[in-house]
User: Fold this.
Amino acid sequence: MDERVREHAEVLVDWSARVEAGDDVILVVGPEAHDLAVAVAEKLGERGANLLTMYGSGEITRAYLRTHDGDFDENPDFERALYERADVVLSIGGGRNTSAMADVPGETRQAYDGARTEIHEARFDTRWVSTVHPTRSLAQQANMAYEEYREFAYDAILRDWEALAEEMAQLKDLLDDGEEVRLVADGTDLRMRIDDRTGVNSAASVAYGSHNLPSGEVFTAPYATEGAVTFDVPMTLRGTPVRNVRLEFEDGEVVDYVAEQGESVIGAILDTDEGARRLGELGIGMNRGIDRYTDNILFDEKMGDTVHLAVGRAYDACLPEGETGNESAVHTDMILDVSEDARLEIDDKVVQRNGRFRWEDGF
Amino acid sequence: MDERVREHAEVLVDWSARVEAGDDVILVVGPEAHDLAVAVAEKLGERGANLLTMYGSGEITRAYLRTHDGDFDENPDFERALYERADVVLSIGGGRNTSAMADVPGETRQAYDGARTEIHEARFDTRWVSTVHPTRSLAQQANMAYEEYREFAYDAILRDWEALAEEMAQLKDLLDDGEEVRLVADGTDLRMRIDDRTGVNSAASVAYGSHNLPSGEVFTAPYATEGAVTFDVPMTLRGTPVRNVRLEFEDGEVVDYVAEQGESVIGAILDTDEGARRLGELGIGMNRGIDRYTDNILFDEKMGDTVHLAVGRAYDACLPEGETGNESAVHTDMILDVSEDARLEIDDKVVQRNGRFRWEDGF
Assistant:
């Protein structure tokens, strides 16, 4: 076994999920993620955790959903009981076809998800972590050769997370103390309020409230957005390529939008509900192990020298205790490159310029 | 997808497990059993059952067991709760290496199993069915080409189960009414008591108390065994090839044993505990779709024109209500060919001669 697979497993179990003896751990394995699952099982045995292994296959879900009449039982008791009692859920993505569920009607997926909200909540109450095993189908989605993609993925995953967490803490502190963020770049001049909001130091560990591996971003929940933003990092939304989306905000809401490609998808997302026209997230990507776009949000939004904004739902962790932030059925991230001709200001002081942070360049 | 995979799924879901709308179904998928799992998911969706998919991998279990210190938590709550609430458990075997767990120490396996008795019991309280997807590693174990093995497996699995169940019912009735069985063949002359014992018509359906697909045997729990038996069908026990085992019984217990090959494994099994020297099962294989030995007990013991006996534990279904039969930590089946120079008598009347039954040949 490639030593990097073992290192990945160790980061996932120890750094990300903080697994301890006696923990009840659900391991969800994608059809091509077997090797990483074996390495994770090795670590879980070593730690004295209890292991239950599930199979996460888009093809199986597709087969089930397409023949079902759509009238799904609400939160089946056996599955809810399982998640309610689990301490940790480790999900390892990695199949043979990232479009395996492409022909499942949207209404069917929504009906299925809608019938499982309590199961989802129980899962979110565990120390859950999502990662991927680098597979050929993910390499294909990234337009990369398989070995090339593996290099890329492990560069992103096998970081010095402790050092990165310390660096990211500096940005979190600035965001926590700040009142207003201004983002300036080509086609972008946007102001957002962040008073009373709390930044999350997403350092790929549940100890930091972070549930993705790789991670490497600091995010908060802005509001009262004013101005315009242009997202120049390409992406695929709902199966459709989207390019150069420009949003204009007034009084916190999108009042105009345009896109070079995929404009109708953007329109559909913004029309989902009232909250879909407001921002739910401002995130600053700080993982410089991720140096290119691979059409996979798990990696793309953490890319060093990028900033992303999400329309839709805000995360509770960023809000004052008991306060509900922006609510929406959607949370759609879009990304802009800030490596050139760009700056991020907090309360009129520049914090990042052309991708470099204040503590790096001393401005 | 091969239409036989879909037919296999339909037999499993409808005939074997009798799945109905609203059933909570656990589907356990081997690493190479993906295609059958997809076909099963299709059927489960159609029936309106609830689906949770688990991954059954010997390599993952091996990795976990080999690094664990052996002090396993008793019946972890999350897994017990899952099985206690499940209605149906469908296990589809099929990996890449039938020896995947060969280097896991026996004590570790026993400690693991011993810590999970309540989980096993909860599983046995469901409508559980075990089957296999024909894989290359199973073909290899059977000394067969892959396509050849697939033919073999589907011949065994895609029977007219209703017709076979009716035929087997005739033998069950004879066993239920009988007091003594005598088995005569080359190197074999054995008498067993079966008064008050109940035969199980194992017709590959939970409706008949049968939990294997394929099945096709009638079995009961004999006692007070006298005489000698020679098992001439080769098999692998605990990783060791075993050939021509001869057991001698007095007062229901093995008093002497010899084997052409694997004698020490037989000795170890018989020495497990007191019950390991007594019979737990007499089974008559009636699935003529299985026409050869493939070193897989799921198929071998159901082979037409064979009889098998197990030393060790007896099944409750064969015993009078509330009575405990032979108890043991082991249940080891061994098989003899009865297609030639052999007869099975119940109360001194011949029921099967040279593989043919009374109702076939009218003797």
In short: The longest helix of chain A spans residues 161-177. The longest strand of chain A covers residues 240-250.
